[in-house]
Structure formats: structure tokens, C-alpha cells
Amino acid sequence: MTRSWWMTAQLILFAAVLAVPAVCRAVDLGISSDTIVRVYERDDRNGRGRSLLPVYEFMRIDYGSVTTPGLSLHAYGWGRLDLRDSHEDGDAEGDLLYAYLEYIDPDRDHQVRIGRQYLFEGVMRESFDGLYARTELVPTVALSAFAGMPVGAGSAAGRSGDLIYGARIVQGQRGRYDAGISYKYVANDGSRSEELLGADLSLILPAGISLFGHSTLNLLTGGWGEHSYEARIPFASMEFRPFYQRYRYSDYLNDRSGASRPFRFQTALGDRVEIAGAEGFWYPAESVEFGGRYKYLTYDRRFGNAHMATALATVRRGIFSEAGLEFGRVQGDLAENRYYLGRGYLYGDFTPWFATGDVTYVRYDRAIYGENSALFVSAGLGRKMPDPALSLKLSVDYSNDPYFHKDYRGTLAVTYAFRR
Amino acid sequence: MNRRAVFMAGGYMLLALVVSCTQQAHYRLPVKHPPIFELGERREFCTKCHGYRKEPVDFERYNHTPLFTDSHRMVAYQNQNICALCHEQSFCNDCHASRTELKPSEKNPTETFRRMQHRGDYLSRHRIDGRLDPSSCFRCHGNPRAAATCRPCHG
């Protein structure tokens, strides 16, 4: 994090603290803290053993009109302190994930955010420092726009010449359809890095059937990067969700500065994948769920076909207790792309205590580094104290897999939530 | 191709405004959903309280099924405002962040019911999943900052 950004963030925070009470009818304050202590051992890149004891602090602050229209401030970030051996050089020791001021007008027709923020909207799924505004022009049309500097591109070669902007317009009729068009432009170090145009659709048909989807056009390459569409068909206590996806890697994956090698490789390969399949759910009782998903993948060049299937069942008891079983199979045309997966998990609520368990076993058709299987076991115990809103959680994990031989890890988390 | 696409998008915007002259009653989302339980303590089904009506919101679409973690992206792309009724950005940041060091399952090891990505021995499995469908990896690890996770091994 650069010093200039820190100063900017502090100025925004200071201005917000002064400004919020003056323009708010009700001032809320929320502080959430997660303090996480982990203990584990790792070898560094030179093969030297390290005994690690990092302490992480994740802190969130919400101040102002948090639950009502008005002005509010939201900030969230994390930091790490190494109590024993240090992490690898170059690893970040913290980050400001977001810090923005938000204003929502009393009629809730207009929304403005300024600062570091995340946006998941249309073709936009990125963190940026800048301005976002959303307005309902008329009851059936919403327009949003954003502009600023992308956070992600800043690590390539500084933030000079980095720019991001875009917009989305949605037109719809409640209970019938929504149709949106979105646009995003990203410049990294002064050169055009990404330019996407997207269309998304939600369509509600008779008998409760729904159709959703989106398509993305890469304006740099002139090709369609993605088509993803799914239908939802309810039937009594069941639901069936067929879907179809198509990706052309040279148009979907960004091979420009900063992308890691696998994505650059896939882009150069020029392959195309089509994924067809379905999810299905059955709820025989309020506390019992059965679910499953099947994917059939076909490629233009690199592989033959591949199948991915998973089935799971969950049982709930009371409000919070839940147990589940899952079984999966991934089957590519080559043995190296095949594995079985089994998982069982438990979350038992014995207020104020809770206990958790998680077992995952994976069997690989072809050994990875001489290992044919992976076993992961996690056991946890926690206690909630409602006044103050404090939770203590202890987790012990064991893993024996192709990368880690008989690896033990421990995690102690203290969660604190303050509301006023 | 590009010019045609932009022209079509502009045309759609114009059409949207014309169509919208047939206005319907204005519904506005609340800023926040009234709190029920501490967020993240259980998977919620909106239809339990709201039923299967499609108006003013298609509540069924937001049911947190056992596979919701894997397939919620289309919901978020189209209606981030609905997600924001219950979730602060920090909740999304457990998985979607420009740079965090802890995997979601490492930050929340006792929330076993959330079916978080990369739980257990994912380092071995990602070799296979990534070969078969890199698009799902790219959505999070595609930007230069998040790619720092990949660089130590992949360059």
C-alpha cells in the first residue's frame, strides 16, 4: 500500500467522521474484528524449514446511516504480524480491501460511492479507487456508472497510466424480465488492457420457470469470450437447473501484463470449451436436502471430453446444526485429469458451544508426486458469548497429500462485533 | 464488429427508455434486510419467509442451496443490490479480494456448511480443475494483483 493512498484514506476517514453526524438522522456504528492466530510449518523456496506463527487482524468499520438512507462510511482491511519466522520476502503484510463513503437518497432512487470499493455488476468484477453512481431514471430503468483506478493493475508497474471506467443500464418489468447492457474499459500503464461489452438477461416464464444468462464480447479481440445461460424449473419439492456455458480462451482470458503463465498459455492455445449440464435439488422435508450437479465439457483442441459430477445430502437440526455428505467424480479423457472426492462435514450447535468436523478424501487416478490420495481432516470447537458479541473458535487441521506429508495446522480465531 | 456492437448497445439504451414510458408502480429495495441471525451462521432460504412470488423480487433465485457457493455469480452480476441487503462487501471479500493471504476455508475453518472454495487439499486438485476449466480460476486470479498467488509456482 503506497503512502499517498494511506494519506488519502485517512483524509476520507477524517472528513467522513466529521460529516456523517451532520447529515444523518440516525448514526450507527459497527466495528467487527477477526483476530486469527495460525500455527504451522513450511519450507521456504530454498528448502529451509520455517515455523510460522502469524497473527492476522481483519477489521471492518461501518459508520453513519448503515441501515437507512443517508451518508455512511464503510472500511475493511487486514494486516499480519509474524510472531516467529517471517513469511517469504515480497509477501504483502496487509491490505486495505475497501474504504468508501456511500450516499443513498431518502427515496432510495440514487446511490453514490466514492473511495476504494468492489463492484460485481454486469461485466465488472473488480476493485477500484474511484466513483460509482447508480440511479433509477424511471421506475423500469436503472443506470449505473463508475470511473477510477483499478486496484489489481497497480501491481504490474505502479499505478501511473492505470484507468478504469464503465457503465450498465438495465431495463425491466418486475416479475417478468430484466435486460442489461454493460461496458468496461481498463487501461494498465497507459495501454488498453481490457475492453468488454456484456449483455445479461433474466426472464420469468409461466409455471415459475426462469431463464438467466449473460454474454460477454471482448472488444479488444472482437470475439465472444463467454456465453452462460441457465434455466430453473421447479416441480413440487424439486428443482431442475439445466445450464450451458461456452468460453473461447483467447477472448475470455486476459494475457496482458500481470496475468500469470497458465492463463497466457491457455490464451495462446486458442482453445474453446463448451460446458453443458444441470443442477438438481430435492427437498423431501424442511430439514433435508439432496443436491447434485453434472457437467459435460468438450474442447476444440487440447483434450477429449471431460465429466464433472457431484452429489450431496444435508440434514439440519434446530436452527444452526447441519451435517452433510458429498461424493464427486472428475473424469477427463486422460488419467491425470481424473479423481474421486468424498467429503463429510458437521456443524453441531450446543449453545453457547459449537463443534465442527470436516473430512475430505480425494483419490487420484494417476499419482501426483508419488501420492495417489489426499486426506484432509479438520476438527473445531467454539463458544459464542452474546454479551459482548464475542466468539472464540479453535480449529486443528491435518492434511496428508501430494504436497504436504502429515501436515498439522492450528487456528485460533477471536471474533468481536460491536454495534451501537 | 466493435463499432456495430457499440451501436447496438446505444440502440438498446434508447429502446429501453422508450419502452419505459409504460411505467409501473415504483418499488424500492430497503437499504438493509432486518437482521435474523448473525450473518454467515447458516445458509438461508429466502422463500421460507417470502414464498415463491416473483414480485417484487424473484426470491427463489436467492435461496442458498447446498451448491449456492459454486453458482451464485450470475445472481451477483445481475443484482448486486439484492446481495447487499444482507451481505457487506467484507463477506464477499472472504473469497473475492484483490489480495488476501488466507484461503476462505483458512479464515473461517469452523464454518463447514459454507462449502468454501479450495477447502482441504486444493493445491493438488487445482492442477486438474485448472486444466479442465481455467475460466473459473481466471475470474478470481486473473487480475495482476490476485495473480500473486499463482506466481511463486507458475511465474
Task: Supply the key terms.
heterodimer; A: 420 residues; mainly beta; 22-stranded antiparallel barrel; 4 helices; 67% strand; globular; B: 155 residues; mainly alpha; 46% helix; 0% strand
Structural commentary:
The complex is a heterodimer of chains A (420) and B (155). By secondary structure, chain A is mainly β. Chain A is built from four helices and 23 strands. In chain A, a hairpin with a 2-residue loop joins strand 13 and strand 14. In chain B, 46% of the residues lie in helices and 0% in strands. Chain B has helices at 2-19, 47-50, 68-71, 73-78, 80-86, 89-93, 104-107, 122-132, 134-141, 151-154. In chain B, helix 8 (122-132) crosses helix 9 (134-141). The two termini of chain B are 34 Å apart. The chains are: A mainly beta (420), B mainly alpha (155). The interface between A and B is large, with 151 and 100 residues.
